[in-house]
Amino acid sequence: MILRLAIASLIARALTVGMTILAIALSVALFLGVEKVRTGAKESFADTISGTDLIVGARSGSVQLLLYSVFRIGNATNNVSWESYQDIATRPDVEWIVPISLGDSHRQFRVMGTTRAFFDHYKYRQGRSLETADGVIMDDLFDTVIGADVATTLGYSVGDPIVVAHGLASFSEHKNQPFRISGILAKTGTPVDRTVIVSMEAIEAIHVDWRSGAQIPGQVTPVDVIRQMELTPKAITAALVGVESPLQTFALQRAINEYRQEPLLAVLPGVALQELWGIVGIAETALLAVSAMVVVTALIGMMATIFSSLNERRREMAIFRAMGARPTTILGLLVLEAMLMAALGALLGLALLYAGLSVAQPMIDSAFGLWLPVTAPSLQELWVILAVVGAGAIVSMVPALRAYRMSLADGMLVRT
Amino acid sequence: MLRHWTCGACFDVTDAILHLATVDFRWRGRSGFSVSVPNFAMNAGETVLLLGESGSGKSTLLSLICGTMLPDAGRVNIAGQDLATLSSSARDRFRAEQIGVIFQQFNLLPFGTVIDNILLPLRFAPERRKRAGDAKATAATLCTALGLPGEILGHRANTLSVGQQQRVAVARALIGQPPLIIADEPTSALDADSQAVFLDLLFQQTAANKASLLMVSHDPRLADRFDRVVRMEDIARIHRVAA
């Protein structure tokens, strides 16, 4: 009955109570949303590469190597010579090795030179392989396979010709050696979706007339001539390595890191990811703290609403007291109301989040390559809701204690 | 006199439902306003009209009787129980068990239904709830007896007219048969015709419950309905140091 009266009392003040609940709902949606994006981004990052034991590149930082080789973020400071690559590839503990050559682009997308082995060994999301949605893996020197996002963004289909630009965001294009799209990959939710893949030889081929990053003036080697040329790469950007046995991973890593002929770096993708989380962790915590502060602000807003309602509700409290209610009952009633508001707000916030998520999911995916799964509320989210209700109860103690003192002093008299 | 309750700790067993003896009460924080009541008693089943102008200490007296305030000296006995010997929460429950209260106006929780308002005191008084039997049926019977339409029970209190609200307040005061009914100017918000009807119903139902009625008013015209009329100035002394 007390609960029913508390609910009736809230309904009677529907406007202010509704506003308070809405404020709590928005703050909870923000908090849970930040958490959702945070874990979503983490999972999405962690899902990007699997099955690769080591990433090898020129000596720099492990996070940097991971970012440019796998996520196409940032650039390599140096290359790995073809000789060093061959040296590593022929080691007995190396089961497979895939070279990667980066540096060119097509529109806003990066071009990656690699070998067919990439399609065999690159795995994402716990061991899934790349598949073509349309067409086939490249066959010819000037064939290319493009990621799903490249195809949808630029409206490409199999057979279309594309021209690769030299460098990133550059105006100098490799016009003389146009490529033909041979296949389009199925969506993976990884940076592969935003990558134009060509063969290692093709990267060499389009740079035949280039020296030190600039086109040799006047020199245009015909495509037919290029096809006849020896197109062994001189250098690669990085390489993905799989070892024969997991036990050999660390020995191989050390061997590469101590390679005498060239300063190289080998990192374990998982370890590098952890290092990355360590760096972004501070920003993450700050973001979470800010959104938690928003929740606290909403709860303090609720406290203010309860405070301002106390005077007009003195009559109500006097009636309760005259009927035999103890001052603690008055206190409990106010705390109960606050908990109801906080619970409604938190649940509404959760509903808002999921509604917003299901609407915005495709947009977030296409804009940021971030797939936020709409799953049943996690245990953690339920804890957040409980915490909000608990915090609401604690915050409401301040006006509730005031009401307690007021009703103790007023008794059943009301001085209005 | 039929007694519906039992009281193990009673030491002053008389027939008085209410007895104030050498009571002294001083408002704290207010400059020297104090009330003293040397002796005032009411018999069980008696109806008493307490006449007093505003500022005569009526409200303070009612708070002392209801036990929301305690006297600085003297005793307040309700049904033989000295209120001062009870803890504050026991006093709150004792009030719920023994006293039905009717205010001047705004008696009801505006957002609650009529039935919720009527049953509210039972929530705090388990013995009174037992006496009420099937509480909802009892509430319905009381409402009918008070001339309220049956369907009103489910209505929200703030949809009722003032006259209806006062009758609901009577039903709430009477449910579970508390031995003492206290009414604080219950008719002052009503017009003359409604006043007469309201008082008829109040007396009829109080008598049916064999309850005592202490009604506070400033209107001496009501006097002939009551067993006894008491003037505030006859039973209480007000001291004001600074007016």
Structure description:
The complex is a heterodimer of chains A (416) and B (243). Chain A has 13 helices and 16 strands. With 416 residues, chain A is an alpha+beta fold. Chain A folds into 2 domains: 2-45 and 281-410, no CATH class; 54-267, no CATH class. In chain A, strands 1, 3, 4, 7, 8, 9, 10, 11, 15 and 16 form a 10-stranded mixed beta sheet that branches. Chain A has a two-stranded antiparallel ribbon with strand order 2-14. Chain A has a two-stranded antiparallel sheet with strand order 5-6. In chain A, α1 (2-12) packs across α12 (327-368) and α10 packs antiparallel against α12. With 243 residues, chain B is an alpha/beta fold. In chain B, the strands form 2 sheets. A 5-stranded antiparallel beta sheet of chain B has the order 5-4-1-2-10. In chain B, strands 6-7-8-3-9 form a 5-stranded parallel beta sheet, sandwiched between helices. In chain B, β1 and β2 form a beta hairpin. Chain B is globular, with a radius of gyration of 18 Å. Mean pLDDT of chain B is 85; it is low at 1-13. The chains are: A alpha+beta (416), B alpha/beta (243).
Quick tags:
heterodimer, A: 416 residues, alpha+beta, 2 domains, ten-stranded mixed sheet, two-stranded antiparallel sheet, 53% helix, 16% strand, elongated, B: 243 residues, alpha/beta, Rossmann fold, five-stranded antiparallel sheet, five-stranded parallel sheet, globular, disordered N terminus
